[in-house]
Amino acid sequence: MNVELKKFWPLDPKVAFLNHGSFGSCPLPVLDFQRALRDRLERQPVQFLVRDMESLLDQARGALAQFTGARPENLVFVPNATSGVNTVLRSLTFAPGDELLVTDQEYNACRNALEFVARRAGAKVVVARVPFPFHSAGQLEEAIMSRVTPPTRLALIDHVTSQTGVILPVERLVNQLAARGVETLVDGAHGPGMVPLHLEQLGAAYYTGNCHKWICAPKAAGFLHVRPDCQPLIHPLTISHGLNSPRMDRSLFLIEFGWTGTLDPSACLSVPAALRFMEGLAPGGWVEIMARNHALALEGRKMLCQTLEIAPPCPDECIGSMASVPLPDAREDELALPPLYIDPLQDQLLARHGIEVPVIPWPGFPKRLLRISAQLYNTREQCQVLADVLRDLL
């Protein structure tokens, strides 16, 4: 099945692309849909942007809300999850003495945003050290909750960690944090399309996610879900016409985020097309897609662990469509430099063997991880080739 499905993605056929998790890849039919939208926009920009766009965005939000278990009025589009995290953090106000909780596995860009607002307000960033490897999800929960104190005002928590590919127990964490008077901002960059979402049921104050990763929408399609009681606090990063709008037919939250200046909305408007297309690729729809990707990620991880002669670093149920394994330490001449941390081994795997897979310096040089992603176009054979190549290289 996977060989047949490869034709729908524009990926280089000479590369075993085991890095869907970094930026995703958009199927050709969805790109065609986006192109048609762009043609329509440029044919009559005023008609599209002034008269048509709001209703088109409403339709797209409706489809995404249904997929994520949300109410459309609580969800708005943003370019990506990093923008969503920044939107919330830059909207909220903190005071000296406040504590902002984050884990040591938070994505660097979002951790930077937290550090920035804390420094500006005189607040303190408190870091929970989340273990990896680990034996049970309870260890993750305990590591985070042990760092909550009376001054804790907000927790920034990954749904799925970028470095280790671990699914954090966000449902339990949101509930426990709320019981301690702490609101949660969930960085769900990898959540949509990898794991089932029920955002209203989750109850987090803020949840932001990407559609360009596992939903396979075009780039610049992300969303921010805000609980109704928190919406008056949140404004888009770009303040525009909506702030003083006299309209009464919809919330100021939707009005402000509905127009933040002239832009190309085609990526967000293509989200329903991506949802429909991907769902049609498996008889069981999204449930089957998530299960297939999960199974391949576990199988690939097993191959890598056998090659590296290590035990699986975390339980199977804590893995979605990505899996990371520890590698032997890097040498001094193999230092990967920020901001995107291309390890020399990663370049070597691509240049010599046609394998694109991230090698991540975590928790810090010389320690590093290798992370594989499993999307429908990936195969067991690609994972086996990677394992065999690593046996020779390491």
In DSSP terms (H or I, runs of 4 or more residues), the helix count works out at 15
The average pLDDT value, as a whole number, equals 95
- What proportion of the residues is helical, as a percent range? 40-55%
User: Helix/strand/pairing class, anyone?
Assistant: alpha/beta
Shape field: globular
* Assembly type: single chain
Order of helices and strands: HEHHHEHEHEHEHEHEEHHHHEHEEEH
Fraction in beta strands: 5-15%
CATH architectural arrangement of the largest domain: 3-Layer(aba) Sandwich
First-residue to last-residue Cα separation: 32 Å
CATH homology group of the largest domain:
Type I PLP-dependent aspartate aminotransferase-like (Major domain)
Biggest sheet, spatial arrangement of strands: 2-8-7-6-5-3-4
Task: Report the top-level CATH class of the largest domain.
Answer: Alpha Beta
Low-confidence stretches: none
For this structure, the CATH topology of the largest domain is Aspartate Aminotransferase, domain 2
Radius of gyration equals 21 Å
Q: How many strands?
A: 12
Largest sheet: 7 strands, mixed
Provide an overview of this structure:
The protein is an alpha/beta fold. Helix content is 42%, strand content 13%. It is built from 15 helices and twelve strands. The protein has helices spanning 2-5, 20-23, 28-43, 45-68, 81-91, 108-121, 137-145, 170-179, 199-202, 252-258, 266-269, 271-279, 285-308, 344-353, 380-393; strands spanning 16-17, 75-78, 99-103, 124-128, 152-158, 183-188, 206-210, 222-226, 322-326, 355-356, 359-360, 369-373. The longest helix is centred in the N-terminal third of the chain and has 24 residues, at 45-68.
